[in-house]
């Protein structure tokens, strides 16, 4: 990793802040559940508005740095896009379903009743069918990914998501009557990608034109830098405040759900990484490609799980556990990606 990126207080101790954010969120949910309940109910198309705003602040500082004029050159390096598409749509949903079936229906069969196993499986499928859209910009930044190429990878994934998410979920759940709320799917993509993309593009053009590129990079971006990490931590606080009681009351369930989700995350990352290495991808392209596959669009998965199965369902719990384990695991993968950077073939 670029040393200048490794000196910030927030980045240096990100694992600590994330852990504190999760603990604070669980405690808030446990002891102030009634007071924060209105925030949890403040939503549109089943997308929680406070969390949406925080995620917007998480992504915007990444979007505003993108050199949009260089995006047209991404087509000259198609291998990264091909890898992303294969991992996210040809492998990930099906490997997630396999690991969920293996653990929930077989290995942990004695600990779960059929309804629990079915709902946990459904939550895992929702996570596996939704590749990361928002957080990948954070992981890409922390691993020196190419922001313009990352944007292209995410944009292509989002276009496919709008078409492929529903049929893949229906197929893997084996239920023809499953109805995915299209307003939730559409609003999630608009809020978490389109709005920060447009505002980032306009800010980049307007500020550089008015104040110059030097001021933009040396003053504006430095002041903006902490917002992503602060927004990430506050997002975790709210998510776990809303779902904290479930986490505290179901420790065994959390462990049962976390094991296959953890295995899936590392499996997808290492598969992506070694395929990309064989393809001789540059680190700045390979790293975000592996991160997109390993992480999930948990905002969408949580919203759809609640819409389909209810707030107190096993499916909703599984998606929340996905959030619980994803950030710490992805931080470990950030470290691995940066450690392996200097041995990566170019």
Q: Could you characterize what this model shows?
A:
The protein is mostly helical and 346 residues long. The chain has a single domain (3-343), classed as Up-down Bundle (Na+/H+ antiporter like fold). It is 78% helix and 1% strand. The chain is built from 15 helices and two strands. The chain has a two-stranded antiparallel sheet. Strand 1 and strand 2 form a beta hairpin. Helix 7 packs across helix 8, helix 7 (136-142) runs antiparallel to helix 13 and helix 11 (226-249) packs across helix 15 (314-340). The chain is globular, with a radius of gyration of 19 Å. 47% of the residues are buried. Mean pLDDT is 82; it is low at 1-7.
């Amino acid at each position: 990793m670029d040393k200048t990126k490794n000196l910030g207080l927030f980045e240096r101790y990100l694992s600590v802040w994330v852990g504190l954010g999760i603990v604070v969120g669980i405690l808030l949910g446990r002891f102030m559940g009634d007071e924060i309940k209105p925030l949890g109910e403040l939503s549109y198309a089943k997308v929680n508005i406070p969390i949406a705003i925080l995620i917007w602040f998480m992504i915007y500082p990444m979007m505003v740095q993108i050199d949009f004029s260089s995006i047209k050159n991404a087509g000259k390096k198609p291998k990264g896009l091909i890898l992303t598409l294969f991992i996210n749509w040809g492998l990930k949903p099906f490997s997630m379903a396999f690991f969920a079936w293996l653990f929930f229906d077989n290995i942990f069969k004695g600990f779960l009743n059929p309804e629990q196993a079915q709902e946990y499986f459904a939550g895992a499928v929702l996570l596996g069918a939704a590749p990361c859209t928002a957080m990948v910009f954070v992981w890409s930044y922390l691993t020196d990914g190419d922001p313009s190429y990352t944007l292209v990878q995410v944009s292509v994934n989002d276009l496919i998501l709008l078409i492929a998410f529903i049929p893949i979920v229906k197929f893997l759940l084996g239920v023809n009557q499953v109805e995915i709320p299209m307003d939730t799917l559409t609003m999630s993509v608009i809020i978490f990608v389109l709005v920060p993309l447009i505002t980032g593009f306009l800010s980049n053009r307007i500020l550089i034109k008015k104040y110059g590129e030097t001021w933009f990079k040396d003053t504006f971006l430095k002041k903006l830098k902490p917002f992503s990490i602060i927004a990430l931590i506050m997002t975790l606080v709210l998510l776990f405040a809303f779902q904290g009681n479930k986490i505290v009351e179901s420790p065994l369930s959390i462990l049962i759900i976390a094991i296959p989700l953890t295995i899936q995350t590392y499996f997808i990352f290492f598969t992506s990484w070694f395929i990309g290495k064989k393809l001789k991808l540059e680190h700045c392209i390979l790293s975000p490609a592996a991160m997109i596959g390993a992480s999930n669009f948990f905002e969408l998965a949580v919203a759809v799980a609640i819409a389909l199965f209810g707030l107190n369902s096993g499916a909703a719990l599984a998606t929340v556990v996905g959030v619980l384990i994803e950030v710490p695991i992805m931080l470990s993968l950030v470290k691995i990606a940066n450690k392996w950077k200097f041995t990566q073939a170019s």
